[in-house]
Amino acid sequence: MKKRYSRKEKADAIGRILDELYPDTPIPLDHRDPYTLLIAVLLSAQCTDERVNRISPLLFAEAETPQEMVKLEVPEIEDIIRPCGLAPRKARAIRDLSNILLEEHGGRVPASFEALEALPGVGHKTASVVMSQAFGEPAFPVDTHIHRLAYRWTLSTGKNVVQTEKDLKKVFPRESWNKRHLQIIFFGREYCPARGHDPQACPICRKYGRRSLFKAQKG
Question: Which of 55, 56, 60, 98 could pair with 66 as two cysteines, CB 3.0-4.6 Å apart?
Fold first, then answer.
């Protein structure tokens, strides 16, 4: 029978595993500054980081500042970013938020959740990524992958990403949030994929995974 651990005990142990496997946490999206990071994160919605890193240089070759971006027409932006999916919506958001940055923020990306989330196409997760990776503000961006792993590891109830973020912030120290969310993403890609996952071979699931994972494997 597997030993029962509290969420905090599991989080501490999982944190040690993640620190050993990923002592360095490079930012997956290529960027030069807060603005290009913001655009890259916006493009990453329902798109892989790998594809964004192939497409974003093409966009930034045309416009890598708000001043340059507003000179492009929405269809021009759309044509470039089409491989990232949701191109019409993303292109309009990129054009509109660039204009707002110029009109309301002096052409700079604001370093506040409230101001970022007021921008077109920028939700809480995108704002959290920018705040943590561009400005070093403690944040715990939760995407569908982190949401899935937090549930697998019984660190969260898994009801929704909002609850998952709250649960993870409770069990991981605030000073670890910025690296921890990246470590979880890296770990999920390498050891804990959505499909074809073997919980017995997973360094975390085999000890801290939800029991239903093993029942499903036996079934």
Answer: 98
Whether 58 has a pLDDT exceeding 80, the answer reads: yes
Range of 129's domain? 34-133
- If 0-12 CB within 10 Å is exposed, 13-18 middle and 19+ buried, where does residue 16 land? exposed
Per the residue annotation, which of 90, 125, 167, 179 is the catalytic one?
Answer: 125
Are 124 and 174 contained in the same domain? no
Does the annotation count 143 as an active-site position? yes
From 10, 90, 143, 167, the catalytic residue: 143
One domain for residues 63 and 110: yes
**119 lies in the same domain as 147:** no
Q: Smallest Cα–Cα separation from 96: which of 70, 129, 115?
A: 70
pLDDT tens track for 102-124: 999 999 999 999 999 999 999 99
> How confident is the model over 146-155, as pLDDT tens digits?
999 999 999 9
Task: With a cut of 80, say whether residue 136 has pLDDT above it.
Answer: yes
Catalytic (active site) residue 125: yes
For 77-200, list the strands marked E by DSSP.
none
84 lies in the same domain as 108: yes
Same-domain pairing of 14 and 42: no
- Residues counted in the chain: 219
HSE, side-chain direction, 13 A CA sphere, residue 207: 10
